[in-house]
Structure formats: structure tokens, C-alpha cells
Write a structure and sequence with these properties.
alpha/beta
């Protein structure tokens, strides 16, 4: 339910929570993850010494490059029903590059994605028009989108998609994750911080990943604000598989599955970009991923 790096809150079969440590031999396994046990993991633990002794196989997980350990990945959460990214057009701004990397990471494990665009009450008319166009880009590729103000809007439609699911909630610091959770789950009283007037960026109010129970069988996992999203273990030839609008067309390319849609002749993806069937922003972000460019924020 919660990981601090040293201690783990484990929800037992009896419904009680237990503060546990990880038995040493688990850490010695050849694991290229900075956090071998993640929120959402199913584990076996010993009651006597409160030690986690086994991590059970995962259905899926959300990964990004570790910012602390070179060559390692960081697991945000495991065994997810869906992944929700909260984004804002301003104060702070969430780039489309960051959004697309999040979606690719989720799609690589076939985790359904949800985008929540918050703080619409702060937008000027032209900014609201810009955001409406962004929402259309993602709605057109099958991503469920919400455009709202967590402070003022009724959240019943958003809460309904959490039912009977385990949902990851991610996003930059300051986009309103804690405010959202405080409204969805009255009583948890998460700390909320103001946006810096100098940098227009949020400050971290969530330090560790933690799972909260919305109702009997609905859970949401709050994560610390993420500044950047580095992809893990993806070769250039497979990245387009995680762009639904490209995956549907790549078999029509002259070179089929070997086409990476950069400058190949008779490329169906490039044709779709030229005709406007694939959003230019999506394609440009795809290219930055294929080329390994540092466009993760």
C-alpha cells in the first residue's frame, strides 16, 4: 500500500496493515529496478518478523528510467487496471512530449490510459481553445480524456471510472493530484502546496507512492510529482507499436514491420502525417523517442 524505500505498508488478507521490511536475499537477486518491491505488488510476508519474503508475479507495471541509478528502471506501481495522467496547460505546463511518453509506457504493457486536464478555470479563452484541440488529438486515438477544474467541478463522472479498478495517478508536481484525491476520498487530508510564482512549477507534497482505498474494491495510487519520463528497454523498431494510430498503419508500409517511419519510401505512417490523419505533435514526439533525444519533460 505504501513504500518509503525502507519500510512497506502491506495490506494483509485479514484486512489489517503491517509495516514490513524486505528480506535481504530479495535485494540480492539480479533485479535492474531501483525499487524491487513497488506499490501494488502482491507479496508473501512472515507475520513473526514482518519480513517480505516473496514478490508474486506481476500482471503489469509502469516503468520509467531511474534518475538515481544509471541502467536501472523505477517502478511507479504494479498490477494496474488503468493509468491516469493529470496534466495542466499552464501553472505548471505539461508538455505533449511528456504526455506521449507516459502513454507509450502504459501502452507497452497494454494498460488503458486516462488523461485528466486540470485547472480549466485558470485558462483564457484562446488557451481553452488550444486545450480543446489537444483533447481532440488524444480522444481521436482512443484515450479517455477529462477537461475540468478539481476545485469547482463535480467529479462524479471521473469517480465512476475508478470503480472496481486499481488506478495509477501520475503527473508533474503542482498539477492538482492531491486536491483531486482530497475530493475523491474525503478524510485523507493530503497536504496541498501553492505554485511558485517565480518558476510557475509545483513543489513536492507527496514524498512516497501510496495506495488509497476509494471503496471496497476500488484503489488509487498516488505518486510523487514526476519531472521527466525516460523510456525503458524500447528499441526504435518497436516504439511505433505503442502509438495506436501508427500500429494500425505500419503493416501498409513498403518495408512492413521493419519500417521506423523516418524517411523510408512508401511509408503509410508518413503519408498519414502529411494528410493530417496523424497529429504532427504525436509524430514529432515519436521521432524524438526513436532518435533517443532528451525530450522527456
Amino acid at each position: 500500500m505504501k513504500s518509503t524505500g525502507s519500510w512497506y505498508d502491506v495490506l494483509g488478507e485479514d484486512g489489517n496493515k503491517y509495516a514490513c521490511r524486505v528480506r535481504g536475499k530479495i535485494r540480492l537477486d539480479d533485479i535492474r529496478e531501483s525499487n524491487p518491491v513497488a506499490v501494488g505488488d502482491h507479496v508473501n510476508f512472515e507475520m513473526i518478523d514482518k519480513a517480505i519474503v516473496q514478490i508474486l508475479p506481476r500482471e503489469n507495471h509502469m516503468l520509467r528510467q531511474s534518475v538515481k541509478k544509471t541502467g536501472h528502471s523505477h517502478v511507479l506501481a504494479a498490477n494496474l487496471s488503468q493509468a491516469m495522467l493529470m496534466a495542466t496547460l499552464a501553472r505548471p505546463r505539461t508538455s505533449l512530449g511528456f504526455i506521449d511518453r507516459f502513454l507509450v509506457a502504459a501502452e507497452s504493457f497494454r494498460i488503458p490510459q486516462v488523461l485528466v486536464f486540470n485547472k480549466k478555470d485558470l485558462l483564457r479563452p484562446h488557451e481553452l481553445d488550444e486545450l480543446t484541440e489537444v483533447v481532440k488529438i488524444y480522444s481521436d486515438i482512443g484515450v479517455r480524456c477529462f477537461l475540468l477544474s478539481t476545485l469547482y467541478d463535480d467529479l462524479s463522472s471521473l469517480k465512476s471510472i475508478l470503480q472496481h479498478k486499481i488506478t495509477l495517478l501520475a503527473g508533474h508536481s503542482g498539477v492538482g493530484k492531491s486536491t483531486l484525491l482530497n475530493k475523491l476520498i474525503p478524510g485523507i487530508k493530503l497536504r496541498v502546496s501553492e505554485i511558485s510564482n517565480f518558476s510557475e512549477k509545483g513543489t513536492h507534497t507527496t514524498t512516497f507512492a501510496e495506495m488509497f482505498q476509494v471503496d471496497d474494491d476500488s484503489f488509487i495510487i498516488d505518486t510523487p510529482g514526476v519531472k521527466e519520463w525516460g523510456l525503458v528497454d524500447m528499441g526504435p523498431e518497436e516504439i511505433s507499436d505503442y502509438f495506436p494510430e501508427m500500429r494500425d498503419r505500419r503493416l501498409n508500409c513498403k518495408f512492413g514491420a521493419r519500417c521506423i517511419h523516418l524517411q523510408e519510401p512508401k511509408c503509410a505512417v508518413l503519408d498519414a502525417v502529411r494528410s493530417g490523419e496523424i497529429a504532427l505533435s504525436r509524430y514529432e514526439n515519436y521521432v524524438s523517442m526513436v532518435l533517443g533525444e532528451d525530450n522527456r519533460k
